[in-house]
């Protein structure tokens, strides 16, 4: 078993009960982080439901618009209450093409430490939602990946996001491309590098049918070769998932050639040495 030096790490992606599909209040996640000795964590709830495509404004997919103020205020109160933990204020935000200016106005309301950019929708299809899996049978899987990576590239280029979340998300339920997409992966990684965004090693994929970290090692290695910084996340939806499988995440980063990870304060990136897991 590998011991993880959590004090020197961040967990930058987690949700709580306002999100509709996660459980427990914010403070329970703070307490879970303190229990494992985590040095820094960030709340990254989804931007409110209204942000989503019109027929996807689902109480299970995000808070109500009027809850955003309370979310920010509660994070601020927890920062004061738990000064021993560096608690970052963040959001996970869906990239919806054509609504960039509207999004910039919404995001400007608060001083975020970082913003996770996500693509969970191809048009109106929530492709990572278990309720809509039947759509995979109606589409060409390679075209799904192509459309997805193009949207990720476009999202990065908006400048609205600091970290692109779960970079190879269409694999979540085990749907794999049937042809070599390495050219498309190289292209998206070049776009991420040019845009100056980071990626995350997200351990939630280990808890999904695919049973893998996001992104896969080949894609993460392309990111490292292109100079794209990487950070760490559990994408916790319950407190006990905070910091989950970070031994695997650290090994994954090291195998991809990373020696540093990225942390953020008020949208400024800081590179920190990557503490490798030690064998107990
Ligand atoms: Zn997500
Ligand atoms: Zn998430």
Could you explain how this protein is built, in words?
The protein has 280 residues and is α/β, with parallel strands linked by helices. It has a single domain, classed as Alpha-Beta Barrel (TIM Barrel), CATH 3.20.20.140. It contains eight helices and 13 strands. The strands form four sheets. A seven-stranded parallel beta sheet has the order 2-3-4-5-8-9-10. Strand 11 and strand 12 (268-273) form a beta hairpin. The longest helix has 17 residues, at 141-157. One zinc ion binds next to loops.
Which descriptors would you attach to this protein?
280 residues; alpha/beta; TIM Barrel; 31% helix; binds zinc ion
Task: Record the SSE blueprint.
Blueprint: E1 2-3, E2 10-11, H1 26-36, E3 40-46, H2 68-81, E4 86-94, H3 100-107, E5 114-118, E6 121-122, E7 125-126, H4 135-138, H5 141-157, E8 163-164, H6 182-195, E9 198-202, H7 217-225, E10 230-233, H8 246-255, E11 260-265, E12 268-273, E13 278-279
Parallel strand pairs: 2-3, 3-4, 4-5, 5-8, 8-9, 9-10
Antiparallel strand pairs: 1-13, 6-7, 11-12
Helix pairs in contact: 5-6
Residues 92, 118, 120, 165-166 line the site of one zinc ion.
């Amino acid at each position: 078993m590998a011991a993880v030096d959590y004090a020197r790490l961040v967990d930058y992606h987690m949700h709580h009960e306002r999100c509709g599909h996660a459980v427990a209040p914010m403070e329970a996640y703070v307490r879970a982080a303190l229990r494992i000795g985590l040095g820094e964590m960030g709340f990254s709830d989804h931007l409110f439901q209204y942000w989503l495509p019109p027929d996807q404004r689902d109480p299970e997919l995000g808070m109500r618009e009027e809850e955003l103020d309370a979310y920010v205020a509660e994070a601020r109160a927890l920062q004061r209450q738990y000064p021993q933990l560096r608690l970052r204020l963040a959001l996970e935000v869906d990239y919806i093409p054509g609504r960039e200016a509207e999004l910039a106005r919404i995001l400007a309301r608060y001083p975020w430490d970082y913003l996770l950019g996500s693509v969970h929708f191809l048009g109106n299809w929530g492709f990572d939602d278990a309720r809509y899996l039947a759509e995979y049978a109606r589409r060409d899987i390679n075209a799904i990946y192509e459309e997805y990576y193009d949207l990720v590239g476009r999202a990065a280029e908006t400048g609205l996001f600091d970290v692109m979340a779960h970079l190879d998300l269409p694999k979540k339920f085990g749907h794999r491309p049937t042809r070599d997409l390495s050219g498309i992966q190289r292209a998206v990684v070049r776009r991420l590098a040019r845009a100056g965004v980071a990626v995350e090693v997200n351990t939630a994929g280990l808890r999904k049918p695919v049973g893998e970290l996001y992104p896969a090692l080949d894609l993460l290695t392309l990111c490292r070769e292109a100079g794209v910084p990487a950070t760490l996340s559990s994408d916790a939806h319950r407190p006990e998932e905070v910091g989950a499988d970070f031994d695997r995440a650290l090994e994954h980063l090291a195998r991809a050639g990373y020696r540093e990870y990225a942390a953020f304060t008020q949208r400024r990136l800081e590179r920190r040495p990557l503490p490798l897991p030690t064998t107990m």
